[in-house]
Amino acid sequence: MKRIALSTLSLALLGVAGVAHAQSSVTLYGVLDESIQYVNNATPKGGSLVQLFGGNIQGNRFGLKGTEDLGGGLKAIFQLENGFDINTGKLQQGGSMFGRQAYVGLTGDAWGTFTAGRQYDPLVDMVQPLTGDNYFGSTFATPGDVDNNDNSFRVINSLKYVSPVWSGFQIEGLYALGGVAGATGSGQTWSGAATYATGPFSIAAGYLHASNANSPATRASASNVVTGWAGTAAPAATFDSNFPANAGINSAYAASKSIGIASVAVQYVTGPWTGNLSYSNAQYRPDASSGFTTTQKYEVGRAYLGYQVTPAALVGIGYAYTKGHGDASATYNQVSLGGDYNLSKRTDFYLVGAWQHASGEQRVPGTSTLQSATASIGSYGNQSSTNNQVMVSLGIRHKF
Is residue 25 part of a domain? Predict the structure, then answer.
């Protein structure tokens, strides 16, 4: 990261009114993550795909974050973070200029941090770091990212509070205003999480509830009318939006009335070994116009074991078991492998891969039809032509 001190003179030259403090600073930072990727069963006839793909371990980004010392232990903070496709230069996160994060707030050592804007939810902040996804990214994520383990969505119009750390214990809460006149709860999102760390042991747990602003009170007609998703939670990628209209692990549930996700994770570090276990329960509840009438549940169990071979080299293995039931019954077993080697503090090479097997049935979006479940590794949104899929990525990552 590059740190730029903002002196009184530089602020004056920029025409910024106000007094500059000696402790004020702005940091420019970014991540460039690029790979050559192989995916099998990537066409309707089972053909393979070889492509350049960016953002395996970390999404490509650049951003600005800063602080201003207000005195008395109080600081003003902000962060603006852009996400982009390294191969096309296009904006990601729906084309938003600062689609990854955009917030401003206040922080103090004694009372914690309060921020407002477009932000990650507490499960992403506290539970996800204790899973394999934190070490090797999307290849280790939940199939279809049905529980947002891979940070597929952010929360807009949100207010967030993060407490100080009290003897290893910390809490976080978030509430996002729906902004619908006459319907305060429409489209709202709320979430809370807590974490505790002592020595080599860490544990975190939390819950997220997101409401759909498109949810009608009654069915519009006798036929199924898919309303799609709108609200303060923006989970487009969570619904496998890269899939064709008749596929995807959970794409049939974009018309849910609400989504509820409960997650818990534990981690233990001893010497060069890091191991963690996690469980998530995601529920997609129908509304009056959904193409399904019974709540779809996804129960996810994950395990990760990492070994620090040398200070520069890390290897890891992960397993994810995902069981869908309620509206449609399907099972997804995924095994992931990864290796990362640091050339320096800012540049590394990585090799990640995964195999997934799907069984059972999943719903065709907007219909009463079920079809054979198809594999979909992690949160990539690549539909397999069969119930099996293999993916391998060889890449380089540079941070600045």
Answer: no
Residue 162 belongs to domain with CATH number: 2.40.160.10
Q: Of 32-36, 144-148, 361-365, which has the strongest mean pLDDT?
A: 32-36
Smallest Cα–Cα separation from 358: which of 109, 144, 138, 48?
144
Separation of alpha carbons 49 and 36, rounded Å:
10
| Residue 241 within a domain | yes
Q: Are 187 and 107 in contact (CB under 8 A)?
A: no
φ, ψ of residue 230 to 5 degrees: the values are -150, 140
As for how many domains the chain has, the answer is 1
Q: How far apart are CA 146 and CA 263, in angstroms?
A: 12
pLDDT at 239 over 80: no
Q: Say if residue 2's pLDDT is above 60.
A: no
Residue-range definition of the domain harbouring residue 365: 36-399
pLDDT at 260 over 50: yes
Closest to 22 (Cα-Cα) out of 80, 65, 79, 75: 75
Cβ neighbors of 371 (< 8 A, separation 6 or more) are 246, 361, 362, 363, 364
What is the Cα–Cα distance from 222 to 219, expressed in whole angstroms? 7
Looking at the domain assignment, is residue 53 inside a domain?
Answer: yes
In this prediction the pTM is: 0.88
Tell me how far apart the alpha carbons of residues 352 and 315 are, in angstroms, rounded to a whole number.
10
- The predicted-structure confidence for 37-63, as pLDDT tens digits, reads as follows 999 998 878 889 999 999 999 999 999
Check residue 167 and give left, alpha or beta (phi > 0: left; psi -120 to 50: alpha).
Answer: left
Q: How far apart are CA 172 and CA 288, in angstroms?
A: 33
Query: Does residue 11 form part of some domain?
Result: no
